[in-house]
Structure formats: structure tokens, C-alpha cells
Amino acid sequence: MTLKQRLGRSTVWMSAAASGNSVVSFLIFIVLSRILAPAEIGLVAFALIVVEAGKIIVNAGFPQAIVQRQLWDDVYASTCFHLNMVFALLISALIFFIGVPLVEAYYEPDAGPILQVLSVIFFIEGAKAVHEGKLKREFAFQVIAIRMVVAGLLSGAVGIYLAIKGFGVWALVWQQLINHSVITLFTLVASRWVPRLVFSKEDCKQLLTFSSPLMAAQLIGNISSKIFEVLIGVMIGPAALGFFRVGGRALFILQEIVLKPFEQTVLSALSRIPERDQQAAGTLRVIKISAYLTFPIFFGAAAIGPEFIIFAFGEKWALSGQVMTILALGTAPLVIGFQINAALTASGNSRMVMALASIVFVINCGLGLASVSFGLIAAAYGFAVRSYLTIFFNMYFFRKVFGVAILRVIKSVAASFCASLIMLVSVAGLKLTAISELPVALSMISLAAIGGLIYAVLMITVFRAETRNFFGESIDMIPQKIRPAAIKVRQLLRL
Question: Which of 240, 243, 238 shows the shortest CA–CA distance to 106?
């Protein structure tokens, strides 16, 4: 199996797993949102922001170091594992004795106990970091996919049961704990590796040299992406954070389904390519393919955001519909940033990744402080604008390392962007017709179907060359069983 085929197979598996797991978690979130008030959702949301930041420090960039290393070294891997567990202990203590009191004092006292319980996740996460890196470097994404689905189903069933029984926010807390536990257990068993009681100072130094900038970049990037939520929670309140989180929840699910699979598999693929020119070419090809698929999805989400929120969450969350539309407009450009970060990491430029994350952090802080003070909707606009500002820095660093002109990157996604924008405007216009008078569910389905048809027609006619390229690139990447069907479609379209 060629590297291209392995990438395609891995991406399909990760996308399928992300879809199943995300749907389950999304259903849990819908159940809880219909039961709980916006302020209660805001309590859990804030605690999870802290936990996600702590998980990055616990992982410390070690899974990426394991993937990026050309040859497997048992001593190196064992050193990574022991460092992970030390970091887990330190972060748990830091959160428990310092983080919790700060959250209780400056956010909401009720969020403290939630954060205390969720701090157990740090040990669960640290125990699987190296094992997960081993699976990814071996392209065992089928195993990774299966564990996600199993964990999602088990934790989802428990979460729904607890929500129905009246456990409130704690249903979501226990769902998180069970999900992480099952994933870790599955990973430890599937990797077939047991860390040794060895620790290499030389490997530790080399490891920290590579992973420290990467960890810092991931931490800064995470805080940067969450800074709007933090500011909304602190400056406006838990209820506003609840509305913002519900508005962005569906988009987060879409990111997990259509963006994360590319991000996770591209790093493994690019790390196996030694030549920098080939890494650059491979990155551009993935950006082009992923934009073809993801741009219409996120622009479509922007078009039907208000209808979707009312249908899924109920009328009390109508404000979140406006938030979803605005946030979706700023999500599409992330596909470029994800692939460029993977390319920089695969080429060993972890310090540049950290520098890029730092720049993005400054932009987000500035826009966050400037927009949140004007209210929730203004904050959503600020969040969307930051995506378009920061993407140019991504392309600048990509040009600096790989010599690829910024205009070349823009051209690679221009057709998909234009077709998606035309689709968005067309669907918005249709809302002024009798379609808007239909029941919410029927209106949403109709708009989505018409929007998808508009995009397909544009890509087959006006941007025909892009569609021909998409089929040419993706035919070899898709699973063998469905390849004949894809070839047949290409023949029918005369591409």
C-alpha cells in the first residue's frame, strides 16, 4: 500500500470514527441543553476549557515526537511515558490547589467542584499519550477509530441515563470521565507496548528540545481559540457563555468530522516524506482536497444555523442560532491552518509553530478584548474575523519554510471558496421566499439540499477543473471497495 493510499484509508477511518463519536456526544449535549439552563451549561463549559489546556501540558507534544521520529526506540518511548506521568501529577496538583480556588473566586463557586472531579482526566490522558503516538506512527488509525466509537457509545449511554435521572451537569461530567477512561484502556491494549523502568537523560533533553516549543504552540493555540469563551464568561457571565457554547457546538462537531481526520493523518504521512519539496506539494494537495469538501459544509452551516439551533435545542436557544451563523463563516479558513501546522511539525520546525501560535494568540486577545465588551454577537463577529487575519500568518510561515508563495495557497482554495460563498448568498435569498414559512425541520432540510445542489452544479460546470482534480487526487485515496463507484461517477460526469 502506497503512502497516498495509507493516508486516504487512515483519513476515511478517522472521519468515520469522528462522525460516530461526535454524533453520540452531540446527542448527549442536546439532551443536557434541553434540560439545563444556559448558565449551567456555562459552568461545565468553563471547567472544560481549563481541562483541555491542562491536557496539552500533560501530553507535552510527546505523541507528535513519537510520530515524527523515524525509528522506534523503546528507551526513548519509555522516557516519554515517565515524563507524561510526572506532568500529569504536576498539572493535577496545580489545578486542584490553585486553579479551582481561582475559578471559584473570579468565575463561579459552583464551577469549582466540577473542575476538581475533571482533574482526574490528566492522569487518564497521560497514561495513553505515548501509546497513541505508537499507533499513529504505525498508521493504526482503524484501531484509533474503533476505540473512539466504542468509548462514545458507552459514555453516551451513561450520560443520557444520568441526564434522564436528573443528575444535571454531572451527567456531562461523568460522560467525559468514562469517555477518556475507555479510550485510554483501549489504546493501552491495542498498542501492545509496556513502558520499561528506564529513563534516558539524553533522550529527555532531545525530547524536550523538540516537544517544548510544540507543546507551547499547542497550549497557546488552545488558549487562543478559547480566549473568547473565557472573556465572555468572565465579562458577560455564565449564561452568555452557555449561548456561545451551544452556537459553536455543532461547528465543533463538524470540525471533528471533517477537519481533525486530515490534521491527524497528514502529520503521520508527511513525517514519512524526507524531501521538503514533496512535503510542500503534499500539503498543498491536501489543502485543496479538504477545502473542496469542507468549505461548502461550513458555509452551509452558516446558512442554516438559526433553523438548526431551534430544531435541535429549542426556542430558548434561538440567540445561539445567530452565533452559529457568524462562527461558521470564520471556521472554513481553519482547514489551511491545520494542514500548514502539520507540515511545519513534520519538517521539524516546532519553534516556528510556537512562534505562529504566539502571533495568533496576540491577535485573538486583541480582538477578544475589543469585541466582547460590546456583547455576545459582537464577540462572535470578532471570533470569525480572527480566522481570516491569522490565516495569512500561517501562509507566511509556510512560504518561509517551504518556499510556497501565499498567492499559490490562495489559488488552491479559491474555486471552493467562491462556489461556497455563492451557495451561501443563494440560500440566504431563498429564506425570503415561502420556504421560510415551512416547519423548521422541513425548511432546514430544503435549504441544505438546495445549497448542496447549487455547490455541486457550480463545481461541475463553472469550476470543472477543480472537480476533475478532486477526483484525480481522491480516487487512489479512497477505500478499494468504493473505488469502482467513484470511478463510475467520474465517468458519468465526463471528468
Answer: 238
Going by C-beta distance under 8 Å and a sequence separation of 6 or more, which residues neighbour residue 204? 79, 83
CB 325 within 8 A of CB 305: yes
Q: Do 220 and 155 meet the contact criterion of CB atoms below 8 Å apart?
A: no
At 359, which helix (H) or strand (E)? Answer: helix 350-372
Cell of 488: 463510475
Distances (CA, A) of 64 to 69, 72, 340, 447: 8, 13, 15, 41
pLDDT, one tens digit per residue, over 189-214 is 888 888 888 888 888 888 788 777 77
Q: How far is CA 242 from CA 83, 192, 251, in A?
A: 36, 41, 15
Q: How confident is the model at residue 268 (pLDDT cuts 50, 70, 90)?
A: low
Three cell numbers, residue 203? 533522550
Q: Are 486 and 475 in contact (CB under 8 A)?
A: yes
Per the CB < 8 A criterion, the answer to whether 103 and 47 are in contact is yes
pLDDT band at 326 (very low <50, low <70, confident <90, very high): very high
